[in-house]
Amino acid sequence: MKGEFPRNLVDLIEWHADELADQPMVLWQDESITLGQILESSNRVANALISLGVAKGESVSILSPNCPEYYYAWFGALKAGAVFNPVNALFTAEESAYVINHAESRVLMVHPALMPVVEAMRAGIPAIKHVVVMGEGAGPTIAELMREASPNAPAVEIAPDDRAAIVYTSGTTGKPKGAVLTHGSYVWDTASVSEALPMRPGDRLGLILPLFHVNAQVTSLSQFYAGGCIAMFPRFSPSDFWASVEKYRPTTFSSVPTMLAILLAVPGAEKYDTSSLRYVICGAAPLSLELANRFESAFGLRILEGYGLTEGTCVSSINPFLMPRKIGSIGLPLRGQPMKVVDDNLNDVAPGEYGEILVKGPNVMSCYFKNPEATAETVVDGWLRTGDAGYVDADGYFFIVDRIKDMIIRGGENIYPREIEEVLYQNPKIAEAAVVPLPDPFWGEEVKAVLCLKPGEQATEEEIVEFCKPRLASYKVPKQVVFMPEGLPKTATGKIAKKTLKS
User: How far apart are alpha carbons 352 and 254 in whole angstroms?
Assistant: First the structure.
């Protein structure tokens, strides 16, 4: 349907329907699924949802790991005019029930492997009228619904400012909040990031992040917009990763720093043909300068570090592909997304000065669902308060210092954990590091370092402290060092779970 710029996500996923319908769109294990098959399958799901009574503007929850059916369910919900509500596939029954109830969903589409979670929470989700199994299982399955539904797209009018999704944040400060993202927000962010990378026809995205996260959603959509292909890895498996790269031949993959650190520690990459890769996208958490340099040196790949929030749909800035990069920065703002740094009174600060990073643009969420107070605190005069401390340099490149809420205040001195983590990563024995506050009766807070050493390495608390002393001001040197031999706890998207480490 290539023509005028897509007005909504349905237009976007059908952007290349006329000329590329027979081209592979999703590679999954040994399957090759064409764009035409995905569009027809999602039409059938849309018509099935409408027959189940789903009205425009109602939420449809999806609880599933990555699989091709995820796209059928997601796009089918959109074509029905419904609101996509992705549920974290690692949530407990209680956590899942909260998100589903809060989003006011009436239909839950679930992967058969997660039916035990549904059974455990069924009594707690009374508003759910239909549970659809995305695979083999008891009760209505997505395949059964699709067989009985029309393959033609339903006639549902969708405006750019209609709700496309309610995506829940990680809930680091209480219950998760549902960011309402519109069709226009997704379209704008997808087009902007596709231009910045750039995404070209025929490119392949190695999809290893979960589709319940905006990163995987927007990078997937970028392939529909650009006319590319999605090589969907069954899961992120360090031991199988490079073999999967050889098999699927991706142009790039989107990652988080923890994944890159893990891949560095896995031997054997040289055995595989990885020549298809042109660059690596990295975001979701700060990337240490030391890790970036080691990964690029080991694999000969450029890392394009970017930045964004769920509340900003996904990407707001990125190190450009065709312009100079600044390793350690989060790059330049995407087209149409102004960014700035402000002080506590929301006044602009000069280049090089620390403050809170703010983002503006059509990608910014419309609100937190049913939470006007949190919305008013977070979006001020159209500017999204990110809660991230950073600065902008004279060339317009932005740098993250730390999360403002992660900042340690010791006797009135502000300490940014990332600065200490950067020093810790310089130690060749350390594989993972996280710095969190340690309550102290005199200073208020002290510095606590939680570490995982590389295989075969040994170190003592005293050794780590001595390593830090010449590299940090005395008040920043860790007061306590804790070792976690099995690795630091992670969130579903691979970030180090600092909330757990604080407890």
Answer: 29
Tell me which fold the domain 34-171 belongs to.
Rossmann fold (3.40.50)
* Tens digits of pLDDT across the chain (503 residues): 556 789 999 999 999 999 999 999 999 999 999 999 999 999 999 999 999 999 999 999 999 999 999 999 999 999 999 999 999 888 888 889 999 999 999 999 999 999 999 999 999 999 999 999 998 877 799 999 999 899 999 999 999 999 999 999 865 445 789 999 999 999 999 999 998 887 888 899 999 988 999 999 999 999 999 999 999 987 888 888 998 999 999 999 998 887 888 888 887 788 889 899 999 999 877 777 888 888 888 888 899 999 999 999 999 999 988 888 898 899 999 999 999 999 989 999 999 999 999 999 999 999 999 999 999 999 999 999 998 889 999 999 999 887 777 778 786 667 878 888 988 999 999 999 999 999 887 777 899 999 999 999 999 999 999 999 988 878 889 999 999 998 999 876 677 888 788 76
Segments of the chain assigned to CATH 3.30.300.30: 407-502
The segment(s) of the chain belonging to CATH 3.40.50.980 are 34-171
Identify the CATH homologous superfamily for domain 407-502: ANL, C-terminal domain (3.30.300.30)
Residue from 6, 237, 46 nearest 149 by CA: 46
Separation CA 400–CA 90 (nearest Å)? 28
Q: Put the strands of the sheet holding 31-34 in their side by side order.
A: 31-34, 24-28, 229-232, 204-207, 252-255, 279-282, 302-307, 317-318, 332-333
Count of alpha carbons within 13 angstroms of residue 325, beta-carbon side: 20
pTM over 0.70: yes
